[in-house]
Amino acid sequence: MAITVGCFALVDPFSTLDHQLDRIRDWGFSTADVTDTGDGAVLGNHFGFSAVASLDANPHDLRRLFTDRGLSITSFCAHADLLDASAPWRYGTAEIIKAVRAAAAIGVPHVITTEGEPETDFGRRLTRQEALFSILEKLHEPLRVAEDHGVKILLEPHGPYTGDPDAVEEILERAASPALGVNLDTGNSWLAGADPLEYVRRFGEHIGHVHWKDLGAEWEAQRGKVFGCGMSTIALGQGVIDVRGVFDALVAAGFEGATTLEIAGDEAVLASADLLEQWGAVR
Length: 283
Hints:
39% of the residues lie in helices and 15% in strands. It contains 11 helices and 10 strands.
């Protein structure tokens, strides 16, 4: 098995998912993720301006949407709000469970989630231990469901705690679940103030998926202040992140599996895929 490189399924704004997948297929990729998910009905899909995959839809229809274009699904994104108080309008435990069940139904191995930055005074006032408890409590039942369904939930650095390797280690230890792993995001981990290489060194055996980003020097002032950016606008190798070092460290750690480009712009996407292929990845 090799390191494969696929594409973020949100490459053109205000376009439907089938349009995103057509573009990814035409670029020569064979894998993509389910990038934007939510439950219930999705008005934007009906009127043709969003690429959201409803977690209440038939997951086999979603699989067919990919396979009809020669694409395989590598993961479901289920980025959650795990620090603010639970509410029906906040993506959290219920939606992660739905993503796990949908993934299991169509043979997708990974559901990627995170805690996100708190948006309320309640979340912002949590102590470190209260915040870690909130994350663990909201992930407890999804992890039980994931264990029973043969799916892994992967934590992505996209918040103040997943962006801290010490906190990630504590979450992994306290959750003590074989269904919990790590999704390395090269851009988000660096932006949080950590070193992506440290994630590989510390969590190599737990890394199930990788999101590739490089960021320019203009982001330096934001390090440790911003936790996660959706997409990079430059190609890999053009920024300040040691993406080659990360790739080599992943190989040395024995990582084999799916990775995803979270990069915007045709030229940047294709140049990044070409670079990873030069290093030994497979599109």
